[in-house]
Amino acid sequence: MAWYAKWFDTPYYHLLYSNRDFKEAERFLDLLTEFLQLPEKSSIIDLACGKGRHSLYLNRLGYDVIGLDLSENSILHNKKYENDSLKFEVHDMRMPMAYQNINAVFNLFTSFGYFDDAQDDHKVFRSVSEVLQPNGIFVLDFLNADFVRSNLIASEIIRRERMDFHIKRRIENAFIIKDIFFRDQGEDFHFFEKVKLHTMQEIEQLAQQYGLHLRAKFGDYQLNEFHPETSPRTIMVFIKNEMKG
Predict the structure, then answer these.
(1) Whole-angstrom Cα distance, residue 152 to residue 173?
(2) Which residues contact 233 (CB under 8 A, 6 or more apart)?
(3) Where is each Methyltransferase domain found (predicted)?
(4) Which residues of 39-75 are buried (b: 16+ CB within 10 A; e: fewer)?
(5) CA 109 to CA 74: how far, in whole Å?
(6) Do residue 110 and residue 80 come from a single domain?
(7) 153 and 230 together in one domain
């Protein structure tokens, strides 16, 4: 089983990241949707939605939202929030999506770059391009590879609810690898995260192969200008070319 399928489906993953700032996420989506100026009731796919924090807020903003995630436990958790304009489904982002003419696809909080095989990255972009309507929008919120390299914290201990997560980070073969060690009820656990350090240029070239062209880029969740050395995020907004002929 791939590391992401195993780790993301555990309660420990959500415990480790339970400090996420929901208000910051909401402010980010306010700024992003204001910038995009999507029509009222636009359809949005939240690709790799996790426990649905972005999906829920986008739905509250008035959009028709479909949250897709590989984790069965996360989708089961999200199902209780469904309504006529908010749905959740288990889905592997490499596979074609069973929708068409979607206004926008959002892939947020570094939910890309997990795959060892470069062809899997191509499958993601192909799937996104196929599901979007002409002039549809793809938003990819990814880490900034240069910033990660220059600001790497090699080790730390993160405490969550009386549990200590021992974190070790390293860069190996163009991947940032985070080893996560902890002990629960007398049992030792070890999980890891592994994300390809794609550059903005690499992602842009990949997107272009599937008719997705860069419209805007930002360096943080306040949508400030992107600076390669100092921006913590690489937030890219692509638009799908309108097909001709």
Answers:
(1) 15
(2) 141, 142, 143, 144, 218, 219, 220, 221
(3) 41-144
(4) eeebbbbbbbbbbbbbbbbbbebebbbbbbbbbebbb
(5) 16
(6) yes
(7) no
* Torsion on CA atoms 16, 22, 28, 30, rounded to nearest 10: 150
Whole-angstrom distance, CA of residue 220 vs CA of residue 241:
26
Q: Are residues 203 and 83 in the same domain?
A: yes
The domain that contains 229 carries what CATH number? 3.40.50.150
Give the tokens for residue 6: 């195993």
The domain total for the chain is: 2
Take residue 65 and report the two structure tokens written for it.
Answer: 């939202």
Question: Is 245 contained in some domain?
Answer: no
Listed residues 172, 194, 216: the one ending a domain = 194
State pLDDT tens for residues 45-61: 999 999 999 999 999 99
In this prediction the pTM is: 0.94
Do 73 and 104 share a domain, yes or no?
yes
Quote the domain boundaries for residue 174.
Answer: 148-194
Per-residue pLDDT tens over the stretch 179-208: 999 999 999 999 999 999 999 999 999 999
